[in-house]
Amino acid sequence: MFKSIKSIKNFGIFKDTKMNAGQPFLQFNLIYGFNYSGKTTLSRIFRAMQQGHLHEDFASASFTLERNDGESVSSAVLEPIENLRVFNSDYIKDNVNFINSSVNPVLIVGEPNIELEAELKHIEEVDVPAKELERDQYKKSANKKQAEKDNRLKIVGQVVSALNVLGGSTFTRTGVTPLLTQVTADDLKTSAELDQLIDSARSKQADTVPPASISIPDITTLLGNIESILVESVTRTTIEELEANAVLRKWVEDGLKHHHEPEVCHFCKNPLEQLRIDELNAYFSDSYKNLSKKINHAIKQVQEIKLTHSIPKATNLYSDLQQDYDSLSDQIQPLDERVTVIKNSLIEALEDKRERMEEVVPFSPSDYPMPDVSKLTWMLNGQIKEHNRRSLQHGAEQTKARNAIKRHYAYVETSEYDHPGAIKQIQAFNDEYQATQTEIIRLNTRVREIKAELRNVKQGADNLNDNLRLYFGKTDIEIQPIGETYQFVREGRPAKHLSDGERTAIAFAYFITELEDESLKDTKPIVYLDDPICSLDSNHIYNVLGIIKDKLNHEKIEQLFISTHNFEFFNLVKTWFDYYKLVKRDGEVVKPKRAEFYLVNRKQNASTIEQLPKNLKDHKSEYAYLIAKIKEAVQNPERFDAVSVQAYVRKILEVYFTFRFNKPFRANNNSFLEKHLLIGIENSSAKATTLYEFINDRSHAQSISFGVELPDALQAQLQDVWDIIDEAIRTNDKPHYDAYYA
């Protein structure tokens, strides 16, 4: 590894340069500089060390570099450094002949092995494509059958979900699949059963209800009393009129109660004879009266007999229980009617006895059985108990109903589609697919074996083509070994009229491929890359960085130098190199610093290698750096040339107008500056003219690049111009001013 530059004298723009910014070179070194600053010149120093001789344009120059082992490399005594490789414009000119569309071979090309080439061609063009087609067809068939099977299971889940019985849960294909092997014919439900399950699954938890009660009084004693009344008889005198007319008899009987010592009839006011009163009292004797009272009391008791019940409403029960419950409830009315019939029969028997008090009226209690309500009560309470059980176990019952619904539809699916058969078909397709894939792997292994045998034949060409395809997407240009050279071919003919970007891509791919040359076998190279992205678009800049990171990482190289003027590429590499910064933990170094950053800085007619300024290192754009340079030029004008400073000012305004006003800067004149940049500024018109003339009429550089011939002194107007810009941005864009200008 190189440690530092001890001196460079009269090597192009490097007149008398010592050290490299006081910072030793590390494993990774990034060098930034504008065009014409001396980057390529610096790379030529390294190329001279690679080749062992100075470039003819620098015959009188001298340099000395120090290596890590303490040895020095001097231009006075140059010998080729075997592991040093430099990519720059000289390398391209020496190795790539764009006129003849050829490059020097990386390896010596031997005679081709015709048999291996033929076998390789047949495997790659016939065997592998055929097997891949066969494999893909098996995979397609397996996927198609799997999709058909999965879709049916998905539909089962959708059908159940559409019933709105799942609550917050889901029923998808994964839920249906295990049921297919679990369900039996017992899981198939009738329409009525399914409706009942759906109702249960949808139902909300109901309140428990009290038990039903039905009662009829025990009339066994009453029947005994009635029997004793009906067999009791009384003896009395006979009065024909009363015997013949029960109503009259009743009327007279009641009237006697009001004529204990009467002389006059209270009804007709006629005199009453004692004889008549005695006759009537004889007819209505005490025994008669007592029996009559018994009859009246018994009738009153019979009339008090009734069926009583307390039955919860059917609507309080779960819907599937309501029909049976209603049917049972309807049986209460017939029972009540039977009780009424018995009551009426008993009253009728007692009234009949009243007409035949002197007779013994036959009576059998067994002829008047009261209905048994215990069974009906038990059946009603059975429904209520079932309801209450469900209410108390609503969650479990609902889950049971949902599972039954799922199993029903899963069983229906098994009866309509042969899922086990489909699984066997899918497995068969997959087995064939795997067998074919195994054969393809075997064929590809054979391809690699053949290519390994042929590698010594065209290793370099293959690798070069791979690099072109992988990193630059170049499939239209192919490198072919022709005789003692590699020729790049497009559509079977030598590739002519290559673009600058294509030339850079081919040259850099060739350089990277050359690093795999046998001359570097088991050796880590020192690599210097000077603007490897020249003429490439932004997309390919990323590709170049990709190949560098892949081929030239810390495990594969001894030391890497990259120089560039492209700020986008500079930032990408800087971001990568930041990975190799010093890392400490608790004061201990856990990862040593491996990367350093430099600036090739041209002042007047000489360049130096300096440490990368903080503004360039910490920011993602040149903008902050250019502002810092202008401030430095204002303070120390003797260190700068007019052309570069005027270019700095122009570039600053170009960038500012782009993001501040979204307008191009160069297409506008001083009136545009007055309307936008200098709005609200005193004497804006005069200041706009001063600013415009400084950056246009008196500027000899058209971009940020340095000119070749530089004026001797800085324009006197720089202080005034910078004051104008400073005032304008401070006044009209304070946040931006504070961020960049303050």
UniProtKB/TrEMBL annotation:
**Alphabetized UniProt keyword annotations:** Coiled coil
Q: Which GO terms describe its biological process?
A: DNA synthesis involved in DNA repair; double-strand break repair
Q: Which InterPro entries match?
A: CR006_AAA (IPR026866), P-loop_NTPase (IPR027417)
Limits of the Protein CR006 P-loop domain: 10-714
Asked whether the keyword S-adenosyl-L-methionine is assigned, the reply is no
Instruction: Tell me the Pfam families matching this sequence.
Output: AAA_13 (PF13166)
Residue ranges that the Swiss-Prot or TrEMBL entry lists as coiled coil: 426-467
The name this protein goes by in its record: AAA family ATPase
